[in-house]
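Objective 1b of the project was to move from sequence-level analysis to a structural picture of ligand recognition. The entry below was assembled by the postdoctoral researcher (A.K.) and checked by the PI before modelling. It contains the amino acid sequence of the target and the SMILES of the bound compound, calcium ion.
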Amino acid sequence: MKKPLFRLLILLSLCLASAAFAQSAIPIYGYKVVRTYPHDTSAYTEGLFYLNGYLYESTGTEGGSTIRKVDLATGKVLQKVDLPPPDYGEGIVAWKNRLIELTWQSQRGYIYDLHSFKRVGQFTYPGEGWALTEDGKHIYMSDGTPTLRVLDPETLKQVGKIDVTALGRPVVNLNELEWVKGKIYANVWLTHNIVQIDPASGKVVGVINLTGLGPDPQTLSDPSNDVLNGIAYDAKHDRLFVTGKRWPLIYEITLTPQSDN
Ligand SMILES: [Ca+2]
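Corresponding predicted holo structure:
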């Protein structure tokens, strides 16, 4: 998902999408930072979720791909498994005692034991793999297109799809995902926006504008790629966490009203 050749086209479509948000009846939310936590600045975040008191994070790049179990308060990596080249790690999700990982362009995913991180299987899929989340019934997968795939969590086969639109326009570059209170939250790659998607209709029903969140881009090693990506939700305590690729912090945020027009 990092091909500079397509960047101009992508930015153009994102500008159109941003204009659509601005002119829409889609509510736009701001944010308030509740608390910050340390984040490994070598972690090129591709997947993030919270489970039973811990963060689970997957990182990308060829040679830098890992899955980690992380202590939220300290940022300490408690457990880690490497994904060797040529695979490029992408999204992760937990299902029962399994941890499922996508790769970007290898068209295969890997299944690990959630507790030992031992690899126990693999599966294939067409196209690219970007991110995963689940709602207790299905797994949802993004692939960079405006369509989310709906997967059977046991077979990991596609059983449905969600075409995501904002004011009737397809929303491209849906990246890291999180199921939050009946909606699918998605980072829109290369933007400061997280869209809230109604899974039944695919319509964007809210936009979280995270402009200003994150480090000064000048302090990042690769500002054009070290972008907002990574959403985790602690449902038990209603805590929402966001971060970015190689960002030094994870942010716990709450949403604030910004505008309704
Ligand atoms: Ca997530």
